[in-house]
């Protein structure tokens, strides 16, 4: 599968790479000619220090390494400062690969010097395709050559490389399905796979009785409707210690319970905002992290709704002067972003996490496990037997924000519910002008999924919130409740035996960077073991992409993906292939289809992109 034809190679698998060090580098762009003439007797380090002090030349060297397949940068090291001759990185990478290259193209290793405006390529090393496709491990020094003339040497770089073809990967059995439960997790991920979870899945914010078609389960059972917002209401009402909410949008005027056929006593007409304020007066710690839409601003006392109409400013104003602490979180660029990139990040990128973490009454299962605190990495371990009844954490997460326009059922009515309790006070239609007039419609339907988690994974969701709060709630870290000091929550209690047929294995995945969280390890080898990758002066987690790739590679018969934002595989586009859409999911799906055709096996890919 590696060779497509005589002119093309397909690198489809995993690249294991370690960048050790470089030696005897020659960076012709580094020193100013003035300093070189004035101080020819000085070592380069001294020249850099003089230039830095006098603001002459380019200052201290900031060297890093990138690994490239064609136009795609698949990995990069951290920046090593003020080591112009012999920088040492000692960083390892586990990189999923799905790249089509010309027959003579292999892996390109660039040594770059970070400058105030952009970066300068010191030189490059080329690893031939036959070296990688052999599957052997190579640990050696390679020449660094000028990017303009391969005969001009610029030093050497020591690397260890091994490319594992997708069919030879022992940890992801290509097309092996999910029969082996020990191979179900993503190995290199910040949060480990955890056993002993109870998980409830939701379709839409609410499900009415009589769902069609019937879904048959084991033991001759039928799938029963699950009701997301009703369960969220019950959990919030039951909370005694914490209610932590993170959202793209949180709207205080929505009501969570609207089905008059099964109205919960006391819930009719209760808005989310009033409910949260009430719980905060009962001593519950209520914290909100809401995306700050930079386009929603106040001009001469008049508020503009913002491009995305998230009500972020209104939500913050609603809770001012109350015990509820609401923090608006912008997407700030990392320290290495350019001015233009910074503007794009602030205006075009959002926080898309939708999580709720609360404590609820425990059912008395009675087995403790060690949960994470904000100083730990969030992995569950060290179970201890204990017979006691305590409270437990429940986490809700998925695709449904607690905001207007999200309450819907499997019927997705456009007009019929406009005058009913479901939507008479919750009309959302940003796409059709004039539809918001009373009784006109249509409303915008909303279809999404969500989940409720009890068990170790709920503590991982809590830790995610603690990490974000520690970074983005400036000066408010003390607002987090120290769970270790809550006796009826700590130590946590197992919700179900790991061997129970209703128990789930679970693993939490994210797409996030160090600009949004605290607690990423600083040691490169620990970061690599958690699947974290260096960016420009910051660290990135992309475990969601890795989870997608792992699932697609394991798939035996079909893949179903429903996603509002389906774009990627940019390095393989015939045009505009340097636009930054480098995630590999579309390419992986293509490779799966091609391979199944070659093997004469039936395979189906279903991709649904909601309108």
Automatic annotation (TrEMBL):
Q: Which domain of life is it from?
A: Eukaryota
Q: Identify the SUPFAM superfamilies for this entry.
A: C2 domain (Calcium/lipid-binding domain, CaLB) (SSF49562), Phospholipase D/nuclease (SSF56024)
Q: Which reaction does it catalyse?
A: a 1,2-diacyl-sn-glycero-3-phosphocholine + H2O = a 1,2-diacyl-sn-glycero-3-phosphate + choline + H(+)
Which Pfam families has this protein been placed in? C2
**Keywords, alphabetical:** Hydrolase, Lipid degradation, Lipid metabolism, Metal-binding, Repeat
Q: Name one GO molecular function term.
A: phospholipase D activity
Task: Name the enzyme's class.
Answer: hydrolase
Q: What is its EC number?
A: 3.1.4.4
Q: Where is the C2 domain?
A: 1-142
Task: Please list the cofactors this protein needs.
Answer: Ca(2+)
Q: Which GO terms describe its biological process?
A: phospholipid catabolic process
Gene Ontology CC terms:
plasma membrane
List the InterPro entries hit by this protein, alphabetically. C2_dom, C2_domain_sf, PLipase_D_fam
What family is this protein classified in?
Belongs to the phospholipase D family. C2-PLD subfamily.
Q: Which PANTHER family match?
A: PHOSPHOLIPASE D, PHOSPHOLIPASE D ALPHA 1
From the Swiss-Prot or TrEMBL record, give the protein name: phospholipase D
Organism, as annotated: Ceratopteris richardii (Triangle waterfern)
Q: What's the source species' lineage?
A: Eukaryota, Viridiplantae, Streptophyta, Embryophyta, Tracheophyta
């Amino acid at each position: 599968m590696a060779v497509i034809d005589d002119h093309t190679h397909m690198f489809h698998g995993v690249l294991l790479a370690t960048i050790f060090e470089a030696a005897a580098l020659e960076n012709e762009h580094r020193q100013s000619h003035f300093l070189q003439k004035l101080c020819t007797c000085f070592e380069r380090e001294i020249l850099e220090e003089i230039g830095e002090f006098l603001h002459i030349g380019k200052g201290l060297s900031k060297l890093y390494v990138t690994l490239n397949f064609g136009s795609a940068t698949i990995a990069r090291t951290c920046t090593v400062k003020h080591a112009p001759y012999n920088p040492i990185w000692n960083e390892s990478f586990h990189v999923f690969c799905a790249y089509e290259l010309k027959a003579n193209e292999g892996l390109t290793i660039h040594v770059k010097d970070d400058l105030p405006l952009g970066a300068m390529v010191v030189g490059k090393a080329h690893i031939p395709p036959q070296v990688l496709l052999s599957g052997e491990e190579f640990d050696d020094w390679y020449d660094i050559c000028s990017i303009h003339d391969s005969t001009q040497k610029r030093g050497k770089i020591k690397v260890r490389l091994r490319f594992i073809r997708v069919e030879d990967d022992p940890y992801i059995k290509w097309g092996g399905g999910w029969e082996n439960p020990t191979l179900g997790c993503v190995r290199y991920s910040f949060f480990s796979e955890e056993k002993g979870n109870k998980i409830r899945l939701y379709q839409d914010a609410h499900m009415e009785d009589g769902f069609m078609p019937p879904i048959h389960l084991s033991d001759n059972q039928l799938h029963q409707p699950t009701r997301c917002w009703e369960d969220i209401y019950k959990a919030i009402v039951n909370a005694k210690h914490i209610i932590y909410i993170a959202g793209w949008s949180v709207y205080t005027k929505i009501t969570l319970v609207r089905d008059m056929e099964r109205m919960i006593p006391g819930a009719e007409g209760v808005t989310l905002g009033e409910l949260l304020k009430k719980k905060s007066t009962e001593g519950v710690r209520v914290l909100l992290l809401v995306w700050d839409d930079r386009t929603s601003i106040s001009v001469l006392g008049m508020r503009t709704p913002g491009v995305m109409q998230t009500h972020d400013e209104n939500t913050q104003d609603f809770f001012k002067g109350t015990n509820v602490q609401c923090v608006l979180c912008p997407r700030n660029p990392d320290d290495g972003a350019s001015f233009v990139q910074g503007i794009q990040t602030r205006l075009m990128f959002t926080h898309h996490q939708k999580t709720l973490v609360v404590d609820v009454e425990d059912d008395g299962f009675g087995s403790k496990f060690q949960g994470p605190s904000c100083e730990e990495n969030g992995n569950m371990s060290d179970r201890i037997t204990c017979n006691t009844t305590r409270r437990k954490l429940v986490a809700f997460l998925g695709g449904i924000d607690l905001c207007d326009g999200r309450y819907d059922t499997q019927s997705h009515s456009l007009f019929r519910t406009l005058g009913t309790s479901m939507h008479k006070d919750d009309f959302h239609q940003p796409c059709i002008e004039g539809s918001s007039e009373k009784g006109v419609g249509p409303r915008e339907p909303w279809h999404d999924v969500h989940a409720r988690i009890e068990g170790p994974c709920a503590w991982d969701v809590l830790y995610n919130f603690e990490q974000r709060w520690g970074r983005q709630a400036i000066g408010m870290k003390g607002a987090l409740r120290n769970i270790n000091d809550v006796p009826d929550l700590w130590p946590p209690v197992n919700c179900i035996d790991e061997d129970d047929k209703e128990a789930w294995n679970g693993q939490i995945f994210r797409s996030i960077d160090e600009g949004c969280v605290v607690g990423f390890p600083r040691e490169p080898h620990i970061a690599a073991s958690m699947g974290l990758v260096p960016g420009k002066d910051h660290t990135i987690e992309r475990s969601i992409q890795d989870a997608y790739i792992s699932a697609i590679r394991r798939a035996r018969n079909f893949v179903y993906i429903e996603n509002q934002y389906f774009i990627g595989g940019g390095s393989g586009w015939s045009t505009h292939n340097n636009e930054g859409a480098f995630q590999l999911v579309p390419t992986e799906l293509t490779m799966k289809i091609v391979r199944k055709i070659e093997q004469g096996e039936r395979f189906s890919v279903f991709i649904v992109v909601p309108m």
